């Protein structure tokens, strides 16, 4: 039997955490034959609820679940973890300025960077979900210099999956037949969902999404804003932000990273830019990536038209601004 993998979920009591831990325990993240030990971290006021989630995990009698660590101590939480899914954070409350939210979160991510660096397993893979996701991941990367840069990522897979979903609805095809959409940039309303290279598997072979949709105006306007605004639309409908879709997408992100992407398929991940496509090096930016043997690489050589270039640069610019705001909060 395989040795168990230790998976940390921070903010485990929250909405996403509560949806995510049973998915991990069922094998949705690491596969149906990989035992797991789940580490859950939350803050002191949530300690009792955290213990409640632990009791439920025990009650569900998951065959793959070999242990549960539920703690409010960051050191205990990070100890020996192979995968860290960082969902914990401070939500934006009414009347709060962007800078206040940023300031609360970057100080959390600065502190947690040090704990991961010191106590997690050497090869630990990190996924930041909590917003501002790209900038929290950037802070984590800068304050955990001994963690390889390649091991720190942020979640834009939800946006990617939303784009697949909208195309599948529009074309009335199954979502698993649509592939190779791209989310460029920030997990925010400036993100650029790009379908220029996306395809659909049909009985007559692979067809381009652009061709099948046949309505360039829709793809350049409504489609893009629907994806950019989807988070807000869900909040309006549920009075709560996306949780099951975020949790499921976090599983997809880690699964593809660890197990690999299918041949001919790429996915979107927020990763540290190496300068590809003219994006400033070091910025945490969402790119199309393929994964093999536990490593991602940015898909190279895609043709970028003028429309795309402008949108890719606009979201990069926002990330530069977030970066300087984050640093001004830390100083
Ligand atoms: P939530 O407010 O229900 O849960 C957050 C949890 O984090 C709470 O239990 C809270 O006690 C905990 N927490 C706060 N500070 C902490 C700390 N220092 N250490 C550990 N835990 C801490 O929020 P929800 O809905 O679960 O969302 C979590 C985050 O994910 C939010 O920042 C949200 O904006 C973000 N998000 C990101 C998405 C993405 O695609 N990247 C999609 C949806 C949400």
UniProtKB/TrEMBL annotation:
GO terms for molecular function: L-malate dehydrogenase (NAD+) activity. InterPro entries: L-lactate/malate_DH, Lactate/malate_DH_C, Lactate/malate_DH_N, Lactate_DH/Glyco_Ohase_4_C, Malate_DH_AS, Malate_DH_NAD-dep_euk, Malate_DH_type2, NAD(P)-bd_dom_sf. Coiled coil: none annotated. Its EC number is 1.1.1.37. GO terms for biological process: malate metabolic process; tricarboxylic acid cycle. Transmembrane segments: none annotated. It comes from Sesamum alatum. NAD(+) binds at residues 11-17, 42, 105, 129-131. Residues 156-324 form the Lactate/malate dehydrogenase C-terminal domain. This is Malate dehydrogenase. The active site is at 187 (proton acceptor). CDD domains: MDH_cytoplasmic_cytosolic.
């Amino acid at each position: 039997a395989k040795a168990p993998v230790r998976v940390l979920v921070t903010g485990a009591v929250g909405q996403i955490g509560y949806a995510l831990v049973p998915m991990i325990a069922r094998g949705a993240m690491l596969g149906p034959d990989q035992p797991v030990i789940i580490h859950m971290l939350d803050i002191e006021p949530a300690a009792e609820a955290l213990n409640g989630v632990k009791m439920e995990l025990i009650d569900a009698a998951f065959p793959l679940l070999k242990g549960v660590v539920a703690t409010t101590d960051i050191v205990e939480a990070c100890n020996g973890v192979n995968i860290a899914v960082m969902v914990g954070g401070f939500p934006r409350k009414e009347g709060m300025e962007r800078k206040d939210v940023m300031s609360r979160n970057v100080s959390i991510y600065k502190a947690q960077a040090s704990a991961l660096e010191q106590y997690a397993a050497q090869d630990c893979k990190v996924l930041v979900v909590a917003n501002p996701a790209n900038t929290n991941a950037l802070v984590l990367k800068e304050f955990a210099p001994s963690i390889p840069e390649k091991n720190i990522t942020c979640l834009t897979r939800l946006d990617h999956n939303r784009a697949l979903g909208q195309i599948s609805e529009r074309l009335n095809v199954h979502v698993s037949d649509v592939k190779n959409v791209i989310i460029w940039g920030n997990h925010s309303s400036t993100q650029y969902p790009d379908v220029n290279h996306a395809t659909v598997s049909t009985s007559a072979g692979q067809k381009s999404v652009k061709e099948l949709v046949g309505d360039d105006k829709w793809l350049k306007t409504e489609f893009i804003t629907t994806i950019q605004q989807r988070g807000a639309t869900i909040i309006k409908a549920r009075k709560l932000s996306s949780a099951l879709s975020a949790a499921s997408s976090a599983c997809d992100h880690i699964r593809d990273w660890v197990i690999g992407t299918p041949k001919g398929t790429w996915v979107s991940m927020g990763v540290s830019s190496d300068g590809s496509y003219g994006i400033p090096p070091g910025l945490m930016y969402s790119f199309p990536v393929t994964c093999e043997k536990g490593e991602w690489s940015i898909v190279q050589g895609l043709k970028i038209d003028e429309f795309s270039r402008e949108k890719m640069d606009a979201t990069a610019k926002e990330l530069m601004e977030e970066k300087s705001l984050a640093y001004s909060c830390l100083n």
